[in-house]
């Protein structure tokens, strides 16, 4: 066996990668045909690959590297914690300082009375926890028939069987026996793609009221919770019309349904607020967090519960937990990451300075002939590619590769942008500077030009 390093030739790394490494959400034939791009180092918002390219990371890894790459403070926090206590569990009435300190900090940061933290290793695990939590909550309150959880088509809540079922991705449901029973779905508030000739405001209300209809169909006495991302991420960065969330809040309040806000992407500054729930003005009973919690430097997720839910579930022994629930190294890194976000005023800067600048530049992409709309909040945004702006038409199915073609052009122009169908997404590190925003927009424009020439 050869010892591999970043000095190993790219082709050799790619061949071994294709032979032995199974990638998430990747078709093996793609790897065999082209090989994976191999990332070797990173600093700030910049990635280096094994061919010597310097790439602007417009996706913050997978929506997670909020404080940017190369933060020595996080390296030191991990090393310190590994030396002192590399692992201990939090089961059976044991605890340790990093888990305690992070829970205290999250309780301070999270809005309202979201004061109680149940740790997980990822966003998917935290959503699995939530599914069991909300059902346990109602059972403890003497209403065990309240089992249904309502979600939305095209939502993404993770990849485990529970979280994948909570999500509304039909491509995922088609594989491996999902969804599990007891999850119902309503349509997403995607005005550009599905709003027809309604105004965004009318459409937002209409889609929110599907929740009421679904609750009445299932019977309010049978519904445990509604789960949603404040702003859909993996579904295409879908920012709902302004009428949507206030109406959802009215409905969950009226029918006494728990609201779970999945903040895995929208948490920790991504929207220019600490949490997307604050940006949307909603009051969840439970928040799911991960990704930006540690800026991706360590795998960690959590469910943050309000007082009432924590008290009720606390009446029983909740038979649930992961070996890495409250992993000390992950907690220590997350705590240091939250300190950086706070001390450097990163969230405020996104809200008041770099976010508005990015918005102005990003929205100028609608001057490009391929771009029908550009929507952005804080540092998460998307553009819709269309052959006809007036009718908001999608590309024909056989040309449905417009997003893919543009993403490939971005790749070649050393910019990471992701595509979901014909929506192109950005979610850069929150520390991106104005000059780097300019570079991002220039490279996006050039890539759009090249894609446009190809699609003609
Ligand atoms: N929830 C949302 C909103 C997400 O975007 C993701 C991941 O992208 C998840 C949950 C799952 O998190 P993880 O990949 O850490 O399991």
From TrEMBL:
GO terms for molecular function: transaminase activity. Its cofactor is pyridoxal 5'-phosphate. It holds the Pfam family Aminotran_3. The keyword Transmembrane helix does not apply. Keywords: Aminotransferase, Pyridoxal phosphate, Transferase. InterPro entries: Aminotrans_3, Aminotrans_3_PPA_site, PyrdxlP-dep_Trfase, PyrdxlP-dep_Trfase_major, PyrdxlP-dep_Trfase_small. Belongs to the class-III pyridoxal-phosphate-dependent aminotransferase family. This is Aspartate aminotransferase family protein. It comes from Tropicibacter oceani. The lineage of its organism: Bacteria, Pseudomonadati, Pseudomonadota, Alphaproteobacteria, Rhodobacterales.
